[in-house]
Amino acid sequence: MSNNKPKHCDIAPKYISFVREYLADYGVTEFFYGITIKMKPTTSEMFKKLRQRLPNEMLKARFMLCSSKAIMEYRHHYLSHFAAYDDGYFEKQNLGLNLLKNADITTPKGQQLQRLREEYGFQSWGAWRLPVKYNPNWEAVYVFFSDLDQATLRQNLQAHQEQIDHQLLLYSSLFNDQCIAQLNPISNFNCLSPKAIQVLELTAQGYSSEEIGEKLVMTKSGVHYHQNRLKELFNAKNQAQLVSSAHTLGVLE
């Protein structure tokens, strides 16, 4: 399990303050923000594996946007020790507002998690999911926390849901445009192996599959495997789109 906490994205603190002040009007006290790859439907067996792996994968994030240092520390502690045991973390989430279950205080882990949240002053939490223009398979996510009980927070947010959704989408676009090289999930979660990066770089330089194979001592089918996986990750239909997207996202300079 990773002990490295993510760095804060290179963005002016005033933009974080704008979002924090805006959400405070509805009872939200803290938040963190990132971009994730959409989760596909899972079988029960796959779900068991997901519970074991997903928190560890989220800990690999190299960059985040957070409203405070404290919420960054809470995120790390929660993912390291509690997420795998918390049903609220694995609730199905849709685009827009998602208020999530609180800890199950009938279990020892749930009681510990409840105490942790009380230490940070949290009574309720949720996620607001939004589309990302760079890739239809990605979602922007605000994970937010409140010192209000869940019923009151729900009432505050649902009463102004359309307005909040519009405003958060504007802030999300600002964050993404300024920090996409850090926030895009491909780089942020180290989705590319060193070999895949080499294939991508040589593809961008215009080398053929045969030439890439010779340079990297790979078979032609091995080169095609990496290129096809790269196109899937970047949502590219062909190599030209792949290279263009890699430049746009800052994966290639």
Automatic annotation (TrEMBL):
One of its GO terms (biological process) is regulation of DNA-templated transcription. Transmembrane segments: none annotated. One of its GO terms (molecular function) is DNA binding. Signal peptide: none annotated. InterPro entries: Sig_transdc_resp-reg_C-effctor, Tscrpt_reg_LuxR_C, WH-like_DNA-bd_sf. CDD domains: LuxR_C_like (cd06170). Residues 185-250 form the HTH luxR-type domain. This is LuxR family transcriptional regulator.
